[in-house]
Amino acid sequence: MITHAAPEQGPGPQGEGLIPVAGQDDRADILALFEHSTNIVTILEADGTWRATNAAGERVLGWPAGHDPGDRGFLTYVHEDDRHLVAGTFADVLSGVRDPEAPVVLRVQAADGTWRHLETWARDLRDDPVVAGVVITSRDVTEQVVAQERVQLLSRVLEASQEIVTLCDPTGRVLYANAIARREYGVKEGDMPLETMKGVFPSEEEQLESDVLPTLRRDGVWSGEMMLKNRAGDDVPVAVTLQVHRVQGGDTEIISTIAHDISELKSTQSQLEHQATHDPLTGLPNRPLFQELGEQALARSDRYGTTVAVLFLDLDRFKPVNDSFGHSAGDELLVQIAARLRTSVRRGDVVARFGGDEFVVLCEHPAGQSEMHELARRLIDALSEPVEISGTTASVGASIGIAIGGGGRVTIDTLIRDADAALYQAKEDGRGRAVLFGSRG
């Protein structure tokens, strides 16, 4: 425990008693260094009691230059968790064994009750005739310590984050990659970014060269979506932001990359899009999607001088089956009918459900009316086969209307309307048959 002893006062100018009698020039030089040092300088007597602290103590800690710790003792100003550092590090100094090899950082209480971080050295000058005491020099490093703590906190946050974070220097060398970047995507510190990006984003090399890097050089920031390959070799959709961070002079200091896995979002979007464009029971395209695909097919037919056909199907005996076996059996029947349609149409044809027991087929560049009649007959035969539902067998059939057009003269709605009219005619003619719009048979 460092105790207090009143400083000796000798004759001469004010403050002269802080330094033992020696040559006047030496005393003046030492006093000037003591009073004007930017660091806090505290002198302890040979027995370890406080003698004086310079003006820097007031500037940093708020204690007046002549402040006397009194009976409370010097250590009472040191944070209780740091007092062991004083006891351990300065023990050799106070015992005269040796000076400490490195400074220690202590928390010292200021006059306003706050704690300042002081980087502190102690030197034994008790044998020096000018000083004759132990000199403790302290430098205020509070801002550096707080900044370091913030960096450490940020590092812990980044390490725990599920965001993929990397920092690169201006040459592109990876300075930092957080835990998920290292663990899941194999990014290593020291990697070069172009090689890293091309390795992590192998399917995006063209986008990197044509868009990402030029935009980053021009605007200093790029945001968008890319496919990222993880260590398992799977492509992972991510939302990415790359940003250039510059020093005050404008030169690039760091390039940051932050990527976020959007697999679940993409999956949800895909599900919502599918629900909006497909029949929930059979999974077939619904009417809006069929119309969109039909307009695209007609645009191609106009470009290449071909035609498009629409086959409109209606089940002939669906209602009796639905009424006899119930709606669950009716739904099961529709699912099986949809599956048969998929396997019976030509490759590339689109099968859709418009609702109820109505189905439509879109056929691009059919090889004339005969091919469409042949396709219609194949569908009718497939749908006439008995269906096993709810532990029993049910039989339905189908009637089909056919409409063919193209070359910019029709719309998909026109073809659907004409095929529907031909379907009505097929039912009028006795069901289980196909009719081409504008003809009989």
Describe this structure in words.
The chain has 441 residues and is of the alpha+beta class. The chain folds into three domains: 16-145, PAS domain (Beta-Lactamase, 2-Layer Sandwich), CATH 3.30.450; 161-261, Beta-Lactamase; 278-436, Alpha-Beta Plaits, CATH 3.30.70.270. Helices cover 39% and strands 26% of the residues. The strands form four sheets. The protein has a five-stranded antiparallel beta sheet with strand order 2-1-5-4-3. A five-stranded antiparallel beta sheet has the order 7-6-10-9-8, sandwiched between helices. Strand 16 (398-406), helix 13 (412-428) and strand 17 form a beta-alpha-beta unit. Helix 11 packs antiparallel against helix 12. The protein starts with 23 loop residues before the first helix and ends in a 5-residue tail after the last strand.
Could you write a compact summary of the structure shown?
This protein is an alpha+beta fold and 441 residues long. It contains 13 helices and 17 strands. Helix 10 packs antiparallel against helix 11 and helix 11 runs antiparallel to helix 12.
Question: How is the secondary structure organized here?
Answer:
Blueprint lengths: L23 H13 L3 E5 L5 E4 L2 H6 L21 H13 L8 E6 L5 E11 L7 E8 L1 H19 L3 E5 L5 E4 L1 H7 L7 H8 L4 H15 L1 E9 L5 E12 L5 E10 L1 H15 L9 H18 L2 E9 L2 H8 L1 H18 L5 E6 L2 E7 L3 H17 L2 E3 L2 E3 L3 E9 L5 H17 L5 E3 L5
Parallel strand pairs: 16-17
Antiparallel strand pairs: 1-2, 1-5, 3-4, 4-5, 6-7, 6-10, 8-9, 9-10, 11-13, 11-16, 12-13, 14-15
